[in-house]
Amino acid sequence: MNDEQPPHALPVALVDAELADLVPRYLNNRWSDLSHGHSLLAAREFDQLAGMGHRIRGSASSYGFDGLGEIATKMQQAALDADAVELKRLLSRFERYLRDVRIRYL
């Protein structure tokens, strides 16, 4: 997957149909994480942001949201590097992903 997709390309998550009932709650929790991530960035809580990135990275692929896992991996590294500019960019990507992702149940 390219780091930046063309503007017209929407992310697609390939999700096991057995997880269909769990997906809405999972995504709602990620929206909460996004909001919390902005607060953590404003407070420069890089350790907590790194932990959040690690946790999301681990769960995202379990649900089939590989694109979100890639963003979370980069968030974790940016937080470890205390790179606030990169974290701001990645939080924007995180938001776009959540807003635009299309789910294909397998």
Write a structural description.
The chain is mostly helical and 106 residues long. It contains four helices and two strands, in the order E-H-H-H-H-E. The protein has a two-stranded parallel ribbon. The longest helix is centred in the N-terminal third of the chain and has 20 residues, at 23-42. The radius of gyration is 13 Å and the shape is elongated. The two termini are 20 Å apart. The mean pLDDT is 93.
Q: Which regions have little confidence, pLDDT < 50, spanning 5+ residues?
A: none
Mean pLDDT: 93
Class derived from helix and strand content:
mainly alpha
Lateral arrangement of strands in the main beta sheet: 1-2
Biggest β-sheet, characterized? Answer: 2 strands, parallel
Question: What integer value in Å does the Rg equal?
Answer: 13 Å
Give the helix level as a range of percent.
Answer: 55-70%
Order of helices and strands: EHHHHE
**Number of beta-strand segments:** 2
Give the overall shape, derived from the CA principal axes: elongated
Number of domains: 1
Helix segment count? 4
Rounded to the nearest angstrom, the distance between the terminal CA atoms is 20 Å
- Tell me the β content: 5-15%
